[in-house]
Amino acid sequence: MITIYLLTALLILLYLAYPLWLKACGTVQPEDESPEPDIQNISLVLLSYNGLQYLKEKVDFLLSELSGFQHYEFIIIDDNSTDGSKEFLKQFSNKKNITVILKSEHKGIPHSMNLGVTLATSRYIVFCDQRQKLSSRILHKIVGPLRSPSVGAVSSCISQYDKKNKISFFREHENFMKAIESNCGCLIGVYGPLYAVRKECYPIIPEHIILDDLFLSIKVLRTKQIRLLGDCRIFDDSFSRLYDYQRTRRYLHGLLQILKEESLLNHLNNRQLIMLLWHKYLRLLIPPFLVISYLGSGICSIFSIGYLPVFVFLTLALLLSLLPAFFTFQFILKNLVRFSFFYFIAIPEIMIRLLFRKKSACK
What we know:
single chain, alpha/beta, Spore Coat Polysaccharide Biosynthesis Protein SpsA, Chain A, 8-stranded mixed sheet, transmembrane helix, Glyco_trans_2-like, membrane, Nucleotide-diphossugar_trans, Glycosyltransf_2
C-alpha cells in the first residue's frame, strides 16, 4: 500500500512540475519581420446541431461582430438537427454573405468542419460552436495574431467563470497551463468552441476523430506556432454540468485515437511530444490512483491500525464533498471526487471493451 501512496504522490508532483518545465523551456515570440496588414477578410464557420435555444442569440451576436470587417462570409452548417434548428436557419439562406448548409444526414463535427473549409474563400477561417457566449470584439481579436507568418492557429480562452458567474478551479488551472504553452508557441490543443486557423494550415480531419481540436493542433504545430488569447473569452455552462460520465468516456476514447495515429504523432518534435504526453495523458493516471489509495486505505485499516488515519482523513474529505457546496474549496473537492470516480470506472471499462473487440476480431 505504501507503494500506491508513493506512486500517487509522484504522479501529482510530476503533473504539478509541468508548468515549471515549460517556463524553463523559455518564451518563443512570433516572427514579425514581415507581418501582414490588419485582417479584414474572414470566413466564419458556425457549427450547428440541436442547439435551437442558442441559435438566435448566437447568430445575432456573430452578425454584429462580422459587420466590423470589410469583407466576410458567414457559413452556417447544420448537422441534420431534429429540434427545429434547420427550420430556423432557413430564413438566412438568401441573406448577403451568408451560406446555410442543411445536411440531410448527421455526419459529425469533422465532416462539417471539412465542408466549411471547402466552402470558405478567405485564407483566415474561424470555427465557432453554438452554445457558448462570447466576449465583445472577439472575432477581430482572434484573427489578429494570424498577421504573423509564424502563427498558424489562434485559440480563444474558456473563462474560469461560467454563464452563472461561478468559478471553476479546473478551468482556471487549464487556462494557466495553456497560457504557458502558448508562450512557448506550442499550444497543445485549441479550445474547440472558438478558434482561428490559416486555411493553408488546415488538415482534412478524418470523420472518425473525436478530438478534432487536438488533431488539428498537432497537425498545425508541425510548421507553425499556435497561440492562446486570454482576452478572447468564452463563457460556457458549468464545468460540473458538462463533464459527466459519458463525456469522460468520450474524451478517453478520443485520446486513445490520437495515440493510435502514429503518423499524426510524427508531426511533433521531441519537446512537443513530451508536452502532449505530460499534459494530456499523465494526468489521466492521477484520478484512478487517488481512488485506489482511498479504497486500499479502507481495506488495509481493517488489518493494520496504521492506515486508519489516512482512511479517516480521505473519508472526511469525501463526506465534505457530498455536502452542499458553499465555498470554493467545497466546489473544488466535489469535482475532484466526482471526476476521480469517473476516470476510475471509465479507464478499465474502455480497456475491457478494447480487449473484447480484439478477441472478436481474431475469431
